[in-house]
Automatic annotation (TrEMBL):
Signal sequence annotation: none
Keywords for the protein's UniProt record, in alphabetical order: Membrane, Transmembrane, Transmembrane helix
Topological relation to the membrane, as annotated: Multi-pass membrane protein
Family of the protein in this entry: Belongs to the GtrA family.
GtrA/DPMS transmembrane domain segment(s): 20-135
Protein name per UniProt: Putative flippase GtrA (Transmembrane translocase of bactoprenol-linked glucose)
Transmembrane regions listed in the UniProt entry: 21-42, 48-64, 84-104, 116-134
Species of the source: Trujillonella endophytica
Amino acid sequence: MTASGEAAGGRRGLVDQLVRFVAVGLLGAVVDLSVYSLALHLDVETTLARALSFVAGTTTAYVLNRRWAFQVEGSAKRATGFAILYGTTFFVILGVNALALAALPDSSWRVTLAWAISQGFGTAVNFVMLRLVVFR
């Protein structure tokens, strides 16, 4: 195969992987937002609700990303890398969520929009780190 053919295959592989990652991310986000909404409905404090929802969505995403999006076998090293990455992301999304809640005007969509902003930021960071470090 030529260098340009390898580059095209590499791009196609990256695009396929990104599409699978987005599909998994959407499902993880549905789990995350569902748990967040349920916890808030049950009068759980906002930061704790966000923490619980993150754990639920992250667990879903890890299993599906490992098996389908990145198609790698599980290992203690990968699980540790994943835990470190998502542990870091956990605090980042809590901070982004808190900043968004403080910055957004009061409205019926304020809490959901803050969740979406923190989720989007965390998702972008996670794709890059999962691809370059955890599932390479």
